[in-house]
Amino acid sequence: MLKEERLDYILKKLQADNKVLQTELSNDLQVSEDTVRRDLEALAQSGQLIKVRGGAIPHSPNPYSFKERIVYHENDKKHMAAKALSLIHDGQTIILDGGTSTLTLAKMLPPNLKVTVITNSVPILSQLVEHPSIDLIFTGGRIGKDSQTAGGMDTIKMLQRVKADLCFLGICSLHPVAGVTGLDLGEADVKTVMMESAYKNVALATSDKMGTAEPYKVCDITGIDIIITDKPELPSLQPYIDLGIQVL
Amino acid sequence: MLKEERLDYILKKLQADNKVLQTELSNDLQVSEDTVRRDLEALAQSGQLIKVRGGAIPHSPNPYSFKERIVYHENDKKHMAAKALSLIHDGQTIILDGGTSTLTLAKMLPPNLKVTVITNSVPILSQLVEHPSIDLIFTGGRIGKDSQTAGGMDTIKMLQRVKADLCFLGICSLHPVAGVTGLDLGEADVKTVMMESAYKNVALATSDKMGTAEPYKVCDITGIDIIITDKPELPSLQPYIDLGIQVL
DNA sequence: CGGAATTTTGCATAAGTTTGCAAGAAATAG
DNA sequence: CTATTTCTTGCAAACTTATGCAAAATTCCG
């Protein structure tokens, strides 16, 4: 039996049952569990399923989507959020973009902090609804299922009426020449307006986002005032410092 | 059975019942209570529920008070939501007001339903973000911490641009003479606009809300087309029927 | 086609996880 | 206060995974 036949069978079975067990597959395909394990690994590598102990499960939209919610680099992000926190003071109005870095920041906002938070991110909204002293504003509009953020004209119009002290940008790529870029045109538009609506713009970017670029431009790199990253000592950050951007 | 299946089952059950008991889960899943305990711990760790003695309760976006309310009359509400569900069909645009009855309805929307949902309720938003086929629109604005809904001018402006097939109204009091009334002026305003933005208005009201009134008027009782209640056979509902309102 | 190089497969062993159980501590209810 | 239930901790058994290795299969190349 060809390897491709096995992989095909595994995906078919996964689709039918919403899960596969290594022991079962080994039996069905008449190969050792080691081989099945290696097959699953290959499929996981190419993103066609999620490997779990004892077998594999499909991607969302499926019952197990929570598996994907686990945050990678969590410690890095907490560390970055702590730095971001030092920029925030009572009485300010801050804009929080979507993304896991900004969500981590939202989770860490101390309970007695008195600020106005404007966000377009559903997870951040859920998080801050429970916060006792934050004045919370959500930008309305159609909700993007992938990014879990609001977008479109309504979001942009609401943001245009705002002038915030700080804007924290989450998921996006930073490059000294290409500037700030994003994967989605609509989201890039929203980010652009967000940045125009704040006096100071702070980018939260793990080091793997630095020096990379994506299709849609948000703004020039000089639109960013502060970059917060997990490894501020990296020499690759020098170009940003030379442009007058503060790196924390 | 894969661990992930157990975790998934627990989350599903939690969503359906708003609580899970260790003894029950141990039985349902055919594993020891220790294992269930460890599973709950893992889910609590990743912030997907809150562990309490003997079981677990959901996390955001239902703060405790909200939860208390929804557990009360829960079966009545599921029953009512089932009736409401029968009014909804593919291709429609529906408005969901805040409140526990409408949240229950949102939870029960079948996974293959293709409708556009417009809501101002944070819990409903959180609920439906995960829905695979619903086009979701949230009305922006300042979030009221008590009601967990968006309110204010932005919300109203967005609603005014909409014309939906159905509007499901949650928490409010109904009275044959006083009409539809609410506890909060701002929320009453939003409800008024919501109703104007739909061809057909459906009130979800448990029987204890019938025949009562609160300070702020939303509209005359004739603004309601259908009343869905837990005890449609009560003679006290006759006045509404006489006014041409359908009672389910 | 032959034979070397590469890949795939299965096995053995060791390491790591998960699970259920037991005994005692802690919390809760009556 | 006592009885009951739930929680914690430690642990052993069962199971899963990682690794190195050798046999088998496949590919490559002249």
Short description:
2 copies of one chain form a homodimer. Chain A is of the alpha/beta class.
What does this structure look like?
Chain A contains nine helices and 15 strands. The first copy, chain A, has about 250 residues and is α/β, with parallel strands linked by helices. Chain A has two domains: about 70 residues, Orthogonal Bundle (Arc Repressor Mutant, subunit A); about 170 residues, Rossmann fold (3-Layer(aba) Sandwich). Chain A has a seven-stranded parallel sheet with strand order 6-5-4-9-12-14-15, with helices on both faces. A three-stranded antiparallel sheet of chain A has the order 1-3-2. Chain A has a three-stranded antiparallel sheet with strand order 10-11-13. In chain A, helix 4 crosses helix 5 and helix 7 packs parallel to helix 8. The longest helix of chain A is centred in the first third of the chain and has 15 residues. About 5% of the residues of chain A have low confidence. At the A-B interface, helix 6, strand 6, strand 7 and helix 7 of A face helix 1, helix 7, strand 6, strand 7 and helix 8 of B. Chain B binds a DNA duplex (30 and 30 nucleotides) through helix 3.
CATH topology category name of the largest domain in chain A: Rossmann fold
Read across the widest sheet of chain A, the strand sequence of neighbours is 6-5-4-9-12-14-15
How much helix is in the residues of chain A? 25-40%
Measured between the Cα atoms of the first and last residue of chain A, the distance is 55 Å
CATH class of the largest domain in chain A: Alpha Beta
Report the major sheet of chain A: 7 strands, parallel
| Uncertain spans of chain A | 61-68
Assign the CATH architecture of the largest domain in chain A.
Answer: 3-Layer(aba) Sandwich
Count of domains of chain A: 2
Q: Percent of residues of chain A in beta strands? A: 15-25%
How would you state the average pLDDT of chain A, rounded? 87
- Oligomeric description of these chains: homodimer
Report the total helices of chain A: 9
